[in-house]
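Hey, I was hoping to borrow your eyes for a little while. I'm sending you its amino acid sequence along with the backbone structure tokens. Take your time with it, there's no hurry, and the full record follows here.
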Amino acid sequence: MGCPRGLQIDFTPADSWPAGVYEVVVVADKVTKRCTLTLPLDCDAATECSNESWTVITSGCMKSEQSVEGILFTGAPSSVKVTISSEGQTLGSGTYTPAYATTRPNGATCEPVCKSATVDPMAIQLSP
């Protein structure tokens, strides 16, 4: 059976985001990683904003419906700070100390052991 693992941070609003260049900065367990995301997205290409620790979740292939939904972590960081900015303006920032749930979907004595958490959505202030 599948194993939900990691941490997910959802962004609100998840509506259509205006075209532009967005910088995503994540500090997870004191390790800083950043990437740049350009909207409109190239729907034929892989998400340009990902690394071995986390991936920015995007949706929509019609330019008018594209949005940045949140961040999905492959691991279980104990502390996380996320900041989204565009053109030098901070659009949203959040600091989290996730409480992970541990489950064993194949039974109490069977592998795998899954650790997962979601946190309150991070507010994003988009320009009209």
About this structure: Residues 18 and 39 are 7 Å apart (CA to CA). The mean pLDDT is 85. The chain has one domain: 6-119.
